[in-house]
Amino acid sequence: RYYLRANHLVRAKENIVQALDLLPEDAQAYYMMAVMLEQANHPEEAVKIAKKSELLDYGTNPKRDRLLAQAYEKLGDLQKARQYYEKLASYLPNQPETVAKSGEIAAASGDVRTAQTAFQAALEQDPNLFQVLTLRVHQALVDERTDIALPLIREGLKQKPGDAQLLHDLASAHYLDFI
């Protein structure tokens, strides 16, 4: 299976390179090349190629912007990742995962106010979204409200069994109940 998949990727890359030779101004072909590079865990190269696609295509492209956000995040450039996640959230406001992700990046960048605003917006859209759920768990534990935290932890463990942070939170909640 691995050989078959690798063979398909090589052929796909060859086809994209041929398309770029024939149509060097094809933004979609650059985007497809960037996707392949991102999937092959080459985020730096993926960014370069995706930026070419962005220069050629003046319209919004949520898939390309998500790819750029994720690649910049992998590269540790949180400022650029945040720009793309916020851009995504602005034209995909009804996707709580995107809104929550922009909040995560804002929090990692130290912008707590923006993170709280994004998490609140995501919470209003989907209170059971995993990122929002874990935020609610942490707030309940800070407030020492195990009656709120424990059901949220159980719900989170249904979504992601074995999640290390939730298991830690579960232990913390039981400790708070014990003391």
Task: List its traits.
179 residues, single chain, mainly alpha, 10 helices
Please characterize this protein's 3D structure.
The protein has helices at residues 2-22, 27-39, 43-56, 62-75, 78-91, 96-108, 112-125, 130-142, 146-159, 164-178. The protein is mostly helical.
Brief rundown of the structure:
This protein is 81% helix and 0% strand. With 179 residues, the protein is mainly alpha-helical.
Task: Give the secondary structure arrangement, pairings included.
Blueprint: H1 2-22, H2 27-39, H3 43-56, H4 62-75, H5 78-91, H6 96-108, H7 112-125, H8 130-142, H9 146-159, H10 164-178
Helix pairs in contact: 1-2, 2-3, 3-4, 4-5, 5-6, 6-7, 7-8, 8-9, 8-10, 9-10
Secondary-structure content class: mainly alpha
List how many beta strands DSSP finds: 0
| pLDDT < 50 stretches | none
Q: What percentage of the residues does DSSP assign to strands (E)?
A: under 5%
Coarse morphology: elongated
Mean of all residue-level pLDDT scores:
85
Distance between the termini: 54 Å
Helical content stands at over 70%
